Amino acid sequence: MTSGASHSPALVDAIDALLPQTQCTKCGHGGCRPYAEAIASGAPINRCPPGGEPGIRALASLLNRSIPSLDPECGIEQPLRVAVIDEAHCIGCTLCIQACPVDAIVGAPKKMHTVLASRCTGCDLCIPPCPVDCIAMIPAADSDWNAERRAAARARFESRNARLARDRKAGVQPTAATPAAPIDDKEAVVRAALERARARRAKSGPTKARQHP
Fold it and tell me: How many C-beta neighbours within 10 Å does residue 157 have?
């Protein structure tokens, strides 16, 4: 964001409405709204892989700017994908739940987790924290990421952020939409869960390799 730049809330709203609301942070900002604020202050409009070329064209038209190519440093344009958890090998560490920006993953400590495909935005932020590599990104059954679904994703993102802000203000550990492991116990939970996973895999034999994006 340009230092000292100003922008109207109406302009930010208009820009935000054109962004996909995946909240993937590939643009280098903390979500679609922060990127919209940056664009309103002069940031490049070509840093959103989920929005791709159509998104860049829409932003260029709104802001009367030229149409650049998607910045390859941010990723590539591709159809909507959703996360899927190999539930047989999930160790219940809750790290993916805590990483999901739209509360699309449900589960509890030491219990298997699952992704609600209808809520998943395909951000893939759940993949890096998974200690057993049991999450894959697959093509969405319905890739029509329309305005209604974008608005619903935005609302879930804002609701989650509001909940986390309340937790911080109250001085308690951040919570997920479903129970999550306390931060102080996270490493112990992961270690114990890994031991359970190793024992389970030793009984079941070799596992299938995860599908990579």
Answer: 22
